[in-house]
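Slide 14.
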Amino acid sequence: MLIAQLSDPHLTTGPLAAEPAAGLHRALGRVLALRPRPDCVVITGDLVEHGSPEEYQALRGLIGQFPLPVHLAAGNHDDRESLLDAFGGTPWLGGGFSAYYHVDHPEATVVVLDSLVPGADGGQLGEEQLSWLDGVLAGRSEVPAVVCLHHPPVPVGIPAADAIRLADADAFAEVIRRHRHVVRVAAGHLHRPVTALFAGTVLTVAPSTVRQSSLTMRADDEIGWVAEPTAFLLHLVGRDECVTHSVQVSHAAGQTCGF
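Slide 15: predicted structure.
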């Protein structure tokens, strides 16, 4: 199974809407040009910039004609209520009315978690959601699982980012360790590609489709935005393994498709 992981498009409205919308549209067009085409796309959070209903309508307008399944995750810039108002009951949220859900593809289970804490930049899953995750993973152990969320559960050496990572990472790790068929944990939030070991599997963090953050590894330096390429991750999921490729978008001569 092929899963394209995009992240942090930060769609908005008004005078600054063009760049993030173009970035997400280019990335989705690049996904469509891949051969074979991915089976689905996951967007790991910060779908919009301010969490407004108008921004979610802009997102729905952009992905509404996209021909592949798209699974949406909430990030700290999102608003849960507005997200559910716009996408609840649709395939974009697994057909349900929760921001955490799972989709049982024939070759793998895609689990999307909700790490959004209203009013905070950092994330948390909570006991109820972790218990739900444990049950979902136990219920389909015969196929590989990919678990997706916005906030990375490990420190990555960027102090400003590490201060706002997933708060209950230890409890999350306990659940993941119990399920050896989790072949990848996929996160966003950092606006940088990062890979790390986590709970007996591999964590991959996707770059942003609109802008990347600076690699600021000293607490006394200011983190900012840099004009590095936009890209997404492509996960090739097998029975007991997962291989991840990075696919550049903005600085690549690769073919794209309209939709």
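Speaker note: The chain has one domain: 2-248.
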